[in-house]
Amino acid sequence: MQLTVLGATGPTGQQVVKQALAAGHRITALVRDPARLPQREDERVTVVVGDATSRADVEKATRGSDALISALGPGKDFKSTLASQSAGPVLEAAAAAGVQRLIWLSALGAGASGRRQSRIQASASKLLMSKLMADKGTADDAIARSGLAWTIAMPVMLGNGAATGTYKALPLDSGTTRIGGKISRADLADALLTAATTTQWTRQRIILTH
User: Fold this and answer.
1) Coil, strand or helix: which one is 71?
2) How far apart are CA 84 and CA 59, in angstroms?
3) With CB atoms 3.0 to 4.6 Å apart as the test, which of 85, 118, 150, 196 could cross-link to 102 if both were Cys?
4) How far apart are CA 89 and CA 52, in angstroms?
5) End-to-end alpha-carbon separation of the chain, Å?
6) pLDDT of amino acid 35
7) What is the C-alpha separation between 163 and 11, in angstroms, rounded?
8) Cα dist. 100→39, 63, 114, 149 in Å?
9) What is the DSSP secondary-structure string of 134-175?
10) Whole-angstrom Cα distance, residue 199 to residue 180?
11) pLDDT under 50 in the chain at which residues?
């Protein structure tokens, strides 16, 4: 498949790119700085220089792809509004490019999903990341209102461990149990790719945990 990846130079995006190439897919990566993309010389990778908050840039990177994976993250900016700034342009660009499958990386704790976080993680989110999580919630709701075949991935706390393949994907609205723990970015990337290359979890918000 031809996959477009936003956030390809980030820690999760890099896992997505590596695993996608290993699985035989081709990648179009929208990046601001090509020098930060280790796979930029790979013949299976097309690099488009641009910004995820620009509809024109996202549309250019998305044309010809079978699915769009947004692995954008805030880095260490706990007040980032990148999610809400990019949601609109991404939706418009996907529609214009004729791409129906959109995989959107969010986080458990975004918007009203805090009700499913463990109490410890919910307290930490409220104390340190309240603006970030509110912004992610706004973006998630915009994605969910769209007519695309979206999946919103909501991982618990992230780690840098190896892929295990033993993670759980739980629909956000499947219950009221609070969920904590940690998931590796490698397992998260596997879930994002599974969603992008199958019809699994279509139009669902999925909690990802071990």
Assistant:
1) coil
2) 17
3) 150
4) 7
5) 28
6) 98
7) 14
8) 26, 11, 28, 6
9) HHHHHHHHHHHHSSSEEEEEEESEEE-----S--EEEEGGG-
10) 27
11) none
Which amino acid, one-letter code, is at 34?
A: P
Rounded-to-integer distance, Cα 150 and Cα 12, Å: 19
For residues 134-155, one letter each, b for 16 or more C-beta atoms within 10 angstroms of the residue's C-beta and e for the rest, the string is bbbbebbebbeebebebbbbbb
How wide is the angle at C-alpha 3 spanned by C-alphas 171 and 158, nearest 5°? 45
State pLDDT tens for residues 161-174: 999 999 999 999 99
**Residue 199: predicted pLDDT:** 96
Q: What single DSSP character describes residue 121?
A: H
SS3 203: coil
- Spatial distance between the Cα atoms of 69 and 178, rounded to a whole number of angstroms: 27
Residues 179 and 75: their CA atoms lie apart, in Å, by: 23
